[in-house]
Amino acid sequence: MARSHLKLDEFLPYRLSLASNAVSQVIAQAYEEHFGLKMHEWRVITVLAQDGELTQQEIVGRTKMDKVTVSRAAQVLERRKLLRRVTNADDGRSLRLSLTAEGQKLYARVVPAAIELEAEVLAGLSEQEIAGLKDVLRRLEAAAERVLSRR
Question: Are 85 and 93 within 8 A, CB to CB?
Answer without folding.
Answer: no
